[in-house]
Model the fold of this input.
Amino acid sequence: MNTHSYSGGTTTHAEWGSGHPHLLITSDDVRLVHEILDDETRIGSGDDCQIRLDGIAAVHAIIRHDGHDDYDLEMIGSGQTSANVAKAAEEEGRTLETLHTGARFTAGDWRFVFVRDEFADHGRPYGGRPGGEGAHQRRQPPRPDYEGEGHTGAIRLPAADD
Done:
């Protein structure tokens, strides 16, 4: 497990973009895997999309890697999602859903599953496991200032005397 020490335990905050974020993409007869490498990944049938699929809008959905090292889904075309919490992107009046491992969505006949290694998936402190799902869990320290690190993968965690 990829953890970092600080005064008080471990954190699941990993290097920027780590955890091999990718999409499992399926239809009735096609199986694909797309590794998410860019800070913006467009899904659609248009030539400017990183994931080009037949039978959906030119730009059907966009996944953005945000400043908290999460991946947010914006559905532009119709589709279904498994997310139960949406957040508003107030500056543009959009609704985004933060993707964590196992999040599902559809576009046309295509089905998508987001996957990211647990050590880097910021969905729950410590992977949500100590004491079982839903049990009281201690809070992890604040996220590193990814913006201040220039997204280079370098992380500043509090020193033991901070």
About this structure: Residues 1-11, 126-133, 152-158 have pLDDT under 50 and may be disordered.
